[in-house]
Amino acid sequence: MKKRFILVLSMLLMSLTIAGFGTASEASAKAASEKPKIVNVLDENHFLLDDGTFWGESSRVPWKVSTSFVDIQGPAKSSFGITADGKVYSYRLGKMNELPYMKNVAQIGNNGFWLKNDGTLWQDDEQFDDIANIKMFDYQDGSFAVLSTFGDLEAISSAWNEVSSLGKVSNVRSIAVADSGVVVVQENGQATHYSIGYKANEQKLIASDVVQAMWQDGRVLLLVKSDGTVWRGERSSRFDMKPFSGLTNVKKIVDGSGYSNFLAQLEDGSWVHYRSDGRIQPLEVPTLKNMELLVSKSQAKAGDHFTIEVEEEYTNGYKAKRVPTQEELKIDQPQLIERMANNQFKIKAVGEAIITVTVDGISEQAKIYASADKQLQFASNIKGLVYLPIKPVFETIGGKVAYDAKTKSFTIQLGEQTIAMKKDSKIATVNGKQITMGGVVQERGGQMIFSADLLKNMLGAKITWDDKLKTATVNLGSAKLVVISQETEKAIKKQQVGNLSKYVGKTYWVNDFQNWERFLKITVTDIIPKTDPYGDVLYIIQFKNAKGATLKTSQMGASSVEAHLTAGDTLLNYNPYTRYNWSNKTWDLIKKRKVALGMTKEQVLMSWGSPDHKSSIKSNGIVVESWGYGTYSLSIITFTNGKVSNLYQ
């Protein structure tokens, strides 16, 4: 879509600074050993470094962003960044957006204005249809000037809302517009002021040997001369130009954020800040003052993910957290830690690693201890010497293990260490140096095992053997690896079961237990410990019945096991059929938890258990006793002289 240029200009009242478009050649790649240098500035608080770092400030709070920019243009609060391949980005309020419609750019202005190499003028993605063949333009405080490729100079002033044709000008280096007129700098160094409005076409030669002209507040003109000096003159004094004292070797100038401030780039590429009080100060690149290394997990397990960040504080007060680059980060045991694509890190193996981050000569370190997430198997203790399985152990601590079946030898790569060992030999070589182990490499339980003292000699590991649990523990600093033996499971079970083992082999008859058949004969065959997710040990009692079938209880605590196997309420420790010589009919009623007239107290107790309430009366040699069961729904059994005479349910 195209639109009218003059119509848009007549509506513009905002102040916009237009700057020349920089090319990739103006920003050189910074060598890793060099300190970054300033490529271009927007004001004293906003500048681009040659490593792509863009420094700025919002509400007096400094910020920093890494970019691929080779140049920046525009005012500080709404700037543009240009990449080496010609892409243009807008940067405003901390947000960076690519502007894909801006291609073949010759010059960038503010408020979306830009000039294309073909001489067309655009605002954002819309081309002006009433203006073409433009070589350059400038905009300041509502005043606009354009120079055509034919040398025609035209301008419109914020104070004079008509286009002024100012004539033809040749060999133009740059133009700078204010509401009073346009200053044209030609290739021969002449700077001429062209008036706008009712004095249109009035010209005044201001100075010679000029390389740049810049307005401040529309009334003060600054000129940079070819000898590196900077001159100042006011419109009210008819541009009686005076040099700035102390400013030499200046290449170009950029307006500052304060009144009468400006920035000057010197011939050596450095920048200085000229203040309104006459002070000249170097524009310093903020440098790193303090750094803290932040590791989200210092103690982890193999397979865990964690983050590594640095919290930086710069000399200008800027503080931020970020993930260190690959070049800044060093891990002394790289086989233990893997960098993931999402800036997370993963523990690959067991061990202790030192993480070092170095930024701008400042280094910080942190240790991370990675223990095994599960136990390994096949540890052995042979005549007091601890042996461990070769392949599982070395792979768990980050090694790569190769086995030659013909020679029965192992080659292990562990970080920068190359280890070799062979079956039936005590000799191991580590990076070509021989180490004599406590015992020979041998096979046991289908596994090739080695003497664990090798880890002590190689890595400073501490090896301990728990004779009760029959386990080996390898400590690498604070990292831990546990290797169990073939006897460990039995030893752990023995420890967990403890005194409960005394019940194994005892026989019981079911009374009120696990909803099993009443008076079933069962024998304890095992007490099985189970550890719940909270680390508490629970138990399953395993029985066999008279037919040889296995029965298992639900999990319960040790006190419940004791109660069931000793109290005699849920499980009877005697055979009720032989103790009580009752009829089959009575036993059938009891097994079904029924009560019938004529039953004795013992039979009722066996059927229903102990009552909740009791009462009795005696009269004329007759004893009447009542038993109550329940609280809200009451069942009452009445005994007369010891036998059930009434039942109320």
TrEMBL record:
SUPFAM superfamilies referenced in this protein's UniProt entry, alphabetically: Copper amine oxidase, domain N
Protein name per UniProt: Copper amine oxidase N-terminal domain-containing protein
Coiled coil location: none
Stretches assigned to the Copper amine oxidase-like N-terminal domain: 383-473
Pfam family, one: Cu_amine_oxidN1
UniProt key word Acyltransferase: no
Listed InterPro entries: Cu_amine_oxidase-like_N, Mao_N_sf
